[in-house]
Design a protein that fits this description.
The complex is a heterodimer of chains A (457) and B (103).
Chain A: H1 6-26, H2 30-54, H3 60-80, H4 86-108, H5 115-142, H6 156-177, H7 180-198, H8 206-228, H9 231-254, H10 259-264, H11 288-296, E1 300-305, H12 307-311, H13 315-327, E2 331-336, H14 346-353, E3 361-363, H15 364-367, E4 376-380, H16 389-392, E5 411-416, E6 436-440, H17 443-456
Parallel strand pairs in A: 1-2, 1-4, 2-3, 4-5, 5-6
Helix pairs in contact in A: 1-2, 1-9, 4-5, 4-8, 5-6, 5-7, 5-8, 6-7, 8-9, 11-17, 13-17
Chain B: H1 3-22, H2 29-39, H3 43-52, H4 57-102
The chains are: A alpha/beta (457), B mainly alpha (103).
Chain lengths: 457, 103
Amino acid sequence: MSILPPEWTAFLYLISAVCFILALKGLSSPQSARRGNLIGAGGALLAVVTVFLSAKLENIPLILVAIAVGSAIAVPVARRVQMTQMPQLVALFNGVGGGAAALVAVLELGHDANPWVRLAIVFTMLVGAVSFAGSAVTVGKLQEIISTRPLLFPGMRWVMTIALLAALTACGFVIAQGSAGWAIALLVLGLAAGLLLVLPVGGADVPIVISLLNAFTGLAVAASGVVLGNVLLVVAGTLVGASGSILTKVMASAMGRGVTGIIFGAFRGGSTAGSTTVSDRPVRSSSAEDVAVLLGYAQRVVIVPGYGLAVAQGQHTIAELATALESRGVEVVFGIHPVAGRMPGHMNVLLAEANVPYESLKELDEVNPEFKNTDVALVVGANDVVNPAAKSSPGSPIYGMPILEVGQANQVVFLKRSMRPGFAGIENELLYDPKTTLLFGDAKDSLTKVLSAVKAL
Amino acid sequence: MDPISLLTVVVLAVFVGFEVVSKVTSKLHTPLMSGANAIHGIILVGAIIVAGQASNPWLLTVALIAVVLATVNMVGGFVVTDRMLEMFRGRRPAAKSSKDEAK
């Protein structure tokens, strides 16, 4: 249907673009964030209605069926996913978006012979395919289907270089000839490059890669807007590309690393290999009752949550424990590392789910100076973000990452599943420190026991 | 659209993107990623256009796959972001009232 004149179409797309900007802007505070997101969704809906009313389209019933199918897949998954599995889902949604952009670009190849448009087409295809394959690997790593440790094989660096050169060659041929054969070769090479790029990334760096791939997909969408001559796609894609790049940079600096170091670090060899062996050095383990005594008679407790809390679904129990301690007059705050969990801000989402007061969540810079005056630091299912190796051993893959300095507290209590090293596979010296006490077990079980012991004090 | 206006739009959008995101609190980084993710689901518009112009069944099939993927990206992204932000919203008043009671 071409009901709308082009001016109206452009105007409605402009409104959609403004809605997207407002959606991102809304995230500057928790109060406005939800409304912002709804405005963004409204903008997206407006854009979809506009395209139906403005472009000359055939196959409309089939397109509507495809949209219904997509929604039927997405909504139940998005509604039911547990907050712990959020990073996987975001990576998955990102990957399919990149894949869609690559497919759109391939299909446009038949339409236009203009070399500039073809340049945008090959860019979209390559970046979209990298994003799709890369996101698939991150989902695999987060689900622990694929090893979270850097996967490398001898000569990988060369394979990567050859794949990239081959992809660039294919780009050249597609631009010059517009042939379908080269286009398919380019897609395959893009997928291979995505795999090779993300497989060597260690588990602890996966959150940053998700953000980077998010930016990639944004850029691919922007380029597809150039291909289709659609300003909304250009604006929305660029917006996401820019915001994703900034977020990636912010996160990388929260880990004390450069973005290139994260992506290409493993290629430089050696240093990222962590250990998976369970150490048999002696540690001091203790009972839930002892931990309860430590906590219950403390003046000040800092809780450091990590992914182990999320896996065990212990966020509600820990919130209860915090309340129980507070009612005994203990001052309780949560120390949140920016990259704790599997995604930046992941712990904030989980503790929000458990209704932990916003004011009790403290960021790294805020809480670190306070550890000196802290009686007990309670580390629940976190490891890498409190690992002093980040400060003391330059050979360690996490060296340079700002950590929560729980070692400065009078007592440190770790709730851990086992002595297995964390996601990044690095031994933590703090576990063997004389002031450290360990309580083994599933985080939620342990917390439940400690909670009832605290209530019995 | 001529290249210069296009470039103008791109450059301005880059600055808006930088500006807007640098104001986002780190507590909301997860919803930010998820929300930005939903926004690039707008590729659905592109997928609809290519599907509507597909000239043979093969191309149409590929285009419809793109429509499904883009819909998953967009709809799923907005729904999951809303779910997360709903929790953030519910907390603030509750936190305040409990603090007030304590004082």
